[in-house]
């Protein structure tokens, strides 16, 4: 039995249930609003009618425009929140007799009603995908309505269970993968644009290239996250040779390094549900099994917010990062195509790399974590900041976002757990000495290692 069979079975149940609802319910109830249908879904017991109601609710929701959609989210926050009377009763019962049964009832009573509503909506054919899309729209709404964020917390709670590692399936993406999935890989790629089908084929079908993706049984042909891998003879310092249309293909048997040069999360509705660390670890295992000679695993990662941060530091007269000489040198960044002039580029190189080292090793956000989101991801997975790559990406987008800077993070299998613990416990940035030396004054949260 496969997922297609179960989908068809659910569809059949929903069709029969919908017919039952239409036969048994008067016209007034059939035309009830979406909130009333949600109440009916929560109060119902029949499986067929429940599946039909869930499908009807999701169908109606899909037609809502922004205003009515916000009103529905408001109802989720207020009408389908906590049952305070039930919580009070459960607390009294626990205080009178603190038994396991009383604790269980208190746990159930404290759960907002919308969690059970989401679980029942998930019974509808395509329910999981519809709820992921619903959360995407909720995230858009939260940008203007922060009071709705409590609903988002419930989505993350449920999705973290529904999309845990035990349900994910790793699949290699190659030229034999169905075209519908390949089209989505082209569409979702967020780090280095895939220009056309030929470009895609160079990335997934040559002997020294790999692409792997996680899938979930409820989203059959929808990749959740994918990673592109280049097999190389050494740690790369620039992206152009990896993406070049014409290049020398490396014999996998002579490769020593696997470079993760693009990691893309595909479903915005699953933001906050972590797949990346599982993906990297499993891909390391897959590549190690396929190509035993490969022993070095690194990334070639973008620095998407570095240029914006550097611009603020240049404008800040009391900057702890830049002095007047640095500002004078970095003024060249404001000239067109500064990087094409060797003398100009060389004058920028040293102050920019020193600033970048400060950005990665000392820069912190309001929660005391590294400023850079990509750094937080890899450091949290146990990687070490291995190298800052000067003018590693001279595309227009990269120059605007990172002044051409890219970063290598090294996944040393012998030290991943130790590095992860250092980051998790102390927010420590584990860095190679070549990077830490760029920051002159010692700092507590730099953990230098031999590089």
Please give a structural write-up.
The chain has 451 residues and is α+β, with helices and mostly antiparallel strands. The chain has 3 domains: 3-162, Malonyl-CoA decarboxylase, oligemerization domain (Butyryl-CoA Dehydrogenase, subunit A, domain 3, Up-down Bundle), CATH 1.20.140; 166-299, Aminopeptidase (3-Layer(aba) Sandwich); 302-449, Aminopeptidase. It is built from 21 helices and 10 strands. The chain has helices at 3-24, 27-30, 34-43, 47-62, 66-78, 84-96, 100-110, 113-121, 127-142, 149-162, 179-188, 197-204, 240-243, 276-290, 306-315, 324-330, 342-361, 373-380, 396-402, 416-426, 433-436; strands spanning 169-172, 209-215, 225-232, 257-265, 296-299, 301-302, 384-389, 406-410, 429-432, 446-449. β4 (257-265), α14 and β5 (296-299) form a beta-alpha-beta unit. It starts with a helix and ends with a strand.
Quick structural gist:
The chain is an alpha+beta fold.
Largest sheet: 5 strands, mixed
Uncertain segments:
20-32, 441-451
Q: Beta-strand level of the residues, as a percent range?
A: 5-15%
Mean pLDDT across all amino acids: 89
Termini separation: 52 Å
**How many beta-strand runs?**
10
CATH topology of the largest domain: Butyryl-CoA Dehydrogenase, subunit A, domain 3
- Counting helices, strands and paired strands, the structural category is alpha+beta
Shape: globular
- The CATH architecture classification of the largest domain is Up-down Bundle
- Helices, by number, come to 21
Rg over alpha carbons = 26 Å
- Helix fraction, binned, reads 40-55%
Q: What is the CATH H-level superfamily of the largest domain?
A: Malonyl-CoA decarboxylase, oligemerization domain
Number of domains: 3
CATH class of the largest domain: Mainly Alpha
- Strand adjacency order, main sheet: 1-2-3-4-5
Q: Quaternary status of these chains?
A: single chain
């Amino acid at each position: 039995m496969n997922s297609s069979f179960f989908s068809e079975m659910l569809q059949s149940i929903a069709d029969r249930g919908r017919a039952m609802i239409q036969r048994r319910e008067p016209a007034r109830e059939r035309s009830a609003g979406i909130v009333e249908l949600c109440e009916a879904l929560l109060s119902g017991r029949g499986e067929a009618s429940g599946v039909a109601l869930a499908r009807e609710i999701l169908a109606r929701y899909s037609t809502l425009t922004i205003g009515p959609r916000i009103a529905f989210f408001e109802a989720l926050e207020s009408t389908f929140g906590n049952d305070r009377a039930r919580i009070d009763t459960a607390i009294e019962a626990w205080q009178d007799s603190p038994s396991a049964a009383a604790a269980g009832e208190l746990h159930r009573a404290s759960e907002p009603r919308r969690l059970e509503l989401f679980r029942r909506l998930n019974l509808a054919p395509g329910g999981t995908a519809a709820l992921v899309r619903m959360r995407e729209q909720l995230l858009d709404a939260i940008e203007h309505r922060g009071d709705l964020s409590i609903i988002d917390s419930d989505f993350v709670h449920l999705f973290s269970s529904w999309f845990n590692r035990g349900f994910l399936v790793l699949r290699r993406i190659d030229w034999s993968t169905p075209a519908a999935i390949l089209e989505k890989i082209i569409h979702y790629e967020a780090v280095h644009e895939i220009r056309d089908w030929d470009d895609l084929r160079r990335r997934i079908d040559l002997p020294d290239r790999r692409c792997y993706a996680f899938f979930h049984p409820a989203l059959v042909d929808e990749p959740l996250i994918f990673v592109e891998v280049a097999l190389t003879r050494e740690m790369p310092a620039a992206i152009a040779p990896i993406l070049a249309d014409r290049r020398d293909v490396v014999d996998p048997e002579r490769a020593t390094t696997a470079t993760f040069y693009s990691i893309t999360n595909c479903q915005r509705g699953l933001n906050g549900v972590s797949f990346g660390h599982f993906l990297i670890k499993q891909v390391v295992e897959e590549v190690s099994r396929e190509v035993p000679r490969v022993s070095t695993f690194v990334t070639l990662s973008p620095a998407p917010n570095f240029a914006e941060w550097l611009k603020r530091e240049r404008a800040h007269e009391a900057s702890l990062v830049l002095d007047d000489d640095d500002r004078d040198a970095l003024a060249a960044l404001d000239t067109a195509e500064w990087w094409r002039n060797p003398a100009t580029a060389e004058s920028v190189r040293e102050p920019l790399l020193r600033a970048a080292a400060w950005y990665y090793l000392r820069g912190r956000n309001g929660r005391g974590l590294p400023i850079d989101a990509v750094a937080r991801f890899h450091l949290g997975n146990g990687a070490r900041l291995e190298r800052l790559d000067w003018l590693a990406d001279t595309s227009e987008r990269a120059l605007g976002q990172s002044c051409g800077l890219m970063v290598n993070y090294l996944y040393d299998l012998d030290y991943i757990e130790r590095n992860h613990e250092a980051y998790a416990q102390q927010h420590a940035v584990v860095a190679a000495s070549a990077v830490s030396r760029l920051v002159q004054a010692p700092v507590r949260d730099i953990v230098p290692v031999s590089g």
